[in-house]
Design brief:
Layout lengths: L17 H5 L3 H10 L2 E4 L4 E4 L2 H8 L5 E2 L7 H7 L8 H7 L12 H9 L5 H6 L1 H13 L6 E3 H6 L1 H10 L7 H15 L5 H23 L5 H7 L9 H15 L1 H16 L1 H9 L4 H12 L4 E6 L3 E3 L2 E3 L4 E5 H4 L3 H4 L29 H15 L7 E2 L4 E2 L8 E3 L1 E3 L3
Parallel strand pairs: 2-8
Antiparallel strand pairs: 1-2, 3-5, 4-12, 5-8, 6-7, 9-12, 10-11
Helix pairs in contact: 5-12, 8-10, 8-20, 11-12, 12-14, 15-17, 17-20
This protein binds protoporphyrin IX containing FE.
Length: 414
C-alpha cells in the first residue's frame, strides 16, 4: 500500500521512455508539480520527485535514500523482475571487487569522496584552463567555414572527450581508440550490455590499468597522478579503485558536457535576443551557462531506493521503493524560478540554484570542470555567434536519461 489516494498520472506520462521526452514533457511535469508533487507512478512502479525542494531533500539523506541498490530508471524494471539491478555488474566482473562511486553509500562513499576530491576542486580544474582553451581553439579551427557542419560532432563532442583523455593520461596517438571506448562506455551507462560493449570494456580496463601503472612509476602533474598520490589518514586508493574511478569519469563527464554545449547552443539559436545580449556583454557568460544547465538539464533523472519507511510530503514511501529524481522538472519549478521558469534568461538572478548537477551526497564532482569547459568553448564561439546560422532541423538523442542532440546543422561565418 502506498500513500493516500495518489492521483492517476497525466495522459502520456512515462518518464522511463524515450518517447515521453521526445514529445514535450513539461506540461505533465508542471501538472504534477501543482497537483501531486510526489507522485506514485503506477505504470513504472516508482515515485516521481518533481519539486526542487524534494530533489534536494532526498539528495541530502543518503541513509534513507540510498544509491547502492540502483540509480537508473531502467533498473527499476530489472529490480521488479528480480534481476540484478546494478548497472556496473559488468564492470565489477572486470574488476573483481572495486565498486563505482555513483553507487556507493556512506561511509564507503565519504571515504571515496575524500580520496578523489583533490583532483576536482575548482583550483584543480582551473589548472586545466590553458589546455582546455588550446583544445577549444584547435577544434574550432578545424571546422570548415561557410558550409553546413554538424555542430554536435564538430564542436560539442571533441572538447569533453579530449579533456578526459588528458586527465586520464591518454597520449594523442591513442585518441581514436579512446573515442571508441568512450562511446561504448556511454552505451553501457545507458544499460546496453552486449558482446561489443563487453569487449570494449575489457580493452579499456587493460589500457587504463597500464596508464595507472605508468603513473605509479613516474608521477606527473596531472589528475591521474593526483588520484594516485592522495592519502587521507594513511588510506589510499588501490589500483583497481583508481581504474574503476577513471572508467566512471568516462561515463559521467563525457556525454553530459557534450550535451550542455550542444543544448546551450540550441538555446542561443532559439533566443536571438539573449544571444545578442551575450555577444554585447560577454561577462554574462558564467550566468548564461548556469541558465543553460538549468534549462537543458543534461541528465534528466537519477534514482534512489528507500532504505526504510519514510514520510515525505504527506506520502509514505516504503522500504525498497524506488524514487526518480526528475531534475528536468525540478529545474523548472515555478516556486523557485518563477512563472517564467520555462524561459531562457541569461540574467536570471538565481539560475545557479538549479539541480542539474544533482544535490547533496553525490553532487557532481565534475561541476567545476564542466562549467569551465562550457565557458571556454562559448568564449571562443561568441565572436562567431552574430554570423552563425542554424541550417536545418535539430535531431535529438533518443534517451530517457540524457537530454542530448545527435545532429544540429550549422554554418559558421567565413
Ligand atoms: C554538464 C555536465 C555534467 C552534468 C549535467 C553532470 C551531472 C551529474 C549528476 C546529476 C550527478 C549526480 C548523480 C547522483 O546524484 O547520483 C553527477 C555525479 C558525478 N559526476 Fe557529473 N555531470 C557533468 C559533468 C561531469 C564531469 C565533467 C565529470 C568528471 C570528469 C563528472 C563526474 C561526476 C562524478 C565522478 C559523479 C559521482 C559523484 C558521487 O557519486 O559522489 N561529471 N553528475
Amino acid at each position: 500500500m502506498h500513500a493516500a489516494a495518489p492521483m492517476s498520472s497525466p495522459a502520456g506520462f512515462a518518464p522511463e521512455t524515450v518517447d515521453f521526452y521526445l514529445g514535450d514533457p513539461d506540461p505533465a511535469f508542471a501538472t504534477l508539480r501543482r497537483q501531486d508533487p510526489l507522485h506514485w507512478y503506477e505504470g513504472g512502479g516508482f515515485w516521481c520527485v518533481t519539486k526542487h525542494a524534494d530533489v534536494k531533500e532526498v539528495g541530502r539523506r543518503p541513509r534513507d535514500f540510498c544509491s547502492s541498490r540502483g540509480t537508473q530508471i531502467f533498473q527499476v524494471a530489472l529490480d521488479r523482475e528480480g534481476g540484478d539491478p546494478r548497472p556496473d555488474r559488468l564492470l565489477q566482473t572486470a574488476l573483481a571487487s572495486a565498486p563505482n562511486i555513483i553507487m556507493m553509500d556512506p561511509p564507503q562513499h565519504n571515504r571515496m569522496r575524500k580520496l578523489v576530491i583533490d583532483a576536482f576542486t575548482p583550483r584543480s580544474a582551473g589548472h586545466l584552463e590553458p589546455r582546455i582553451r588550446e583544445i577549444a581553439r584547435e577544434t574550432l579551427a578545424a571546422v570548415p567555414r561557410g558550409e553546413v557542419v554538424n555542430f554536435v560532432d564538430a564542436l560539442a563532442v571533441p572538447l569533453p572527450m579530449l579533456v578526459i583523455a588528458e586527465m586520464l593520461g591518454v597520449p594523442r596517438e591513442d585518441h581514436p581508440h579512446f573515442r571508441r571506448w568512450s562511446d561504448q562506455m556511454i552505451r553501457t551507462g545507458a544499460g546496453i550490455f552486449d558482446d561489443e560493449s563487453q569487449q570494449s570494456l575489457g580493452e579499456l580496463f587493460a589500457y587504463l590499468a597500464e596508464r595507472v601503472k605508468e603513473r605509479r612509476d613516474a608521477p606527473r602533474d596531472d589528475v591521474l597522478s593526483t588520484l594516485l598520490r592522495t592519502e587521507v589518514d594513511g588510506d589510499r586508493l588501490s589500483d583497481a579503485e583508481v581504474v574503476m574511478f577513471l572508467m566512471t569519469l568516462l561515463v559521467a563527464g563525457n556525454e553530459t558536457t557534450r550535451n550542455l554545449i550542444g543544448g546551450g547552443m540550441k538555446l542561443l539559436f532559439e533566443n536571438p535576443d539573449q544571444s545578442a545580449e551575450l555577444v554585447a556583454e560577454p561577462e554574462r557568460l558564467p550566468n548564461a551557462i548556469e541558465e543553460m544547465l538549468r534549462l537543458v538539464s543534461p541528465v534528466r533523472n537519477f534514482c534512489r531506493v528507500a532504505t526504510r519507511d519514510v514520510e515525505l510530503r504527506d506520502r509514505t514511501i516504503r522500504e525498497g521503493d524506488w524514487l526518480a529524481l526528475l531534475y528536468a522538472s525540478a529545474n523548472r519549478d515555478e516556486e523557485v524560478f518563477g512563472e517564467d521558469s520555462h524561459a531562457f534568461r541569461i540574467d536570471r538572478p538565481n539560475a545557479r540554484q538549479h539541480v542539474a548537477f544533482g544535490f547533496g551526497e553525490h553532487l557532481c564532482l565534475g561541476a567545476p570542470l564542466a562549467r569551465l569547459e562550457a565557458r571556454v568553448m562559448f568564449e571562443e564561439l561568441l565572436p562567431l555567434l552574430p554570423g552563425m546560422e542554424l541550417a536545418g532541423p535539430v535531431e535529438p538523442l533518443r534517451s530517457s536519461l540524457m537530454n542530448g542532440l545527435v545532429g544540429m546543422p550549422v554554418v559558421l561565418p567565413a
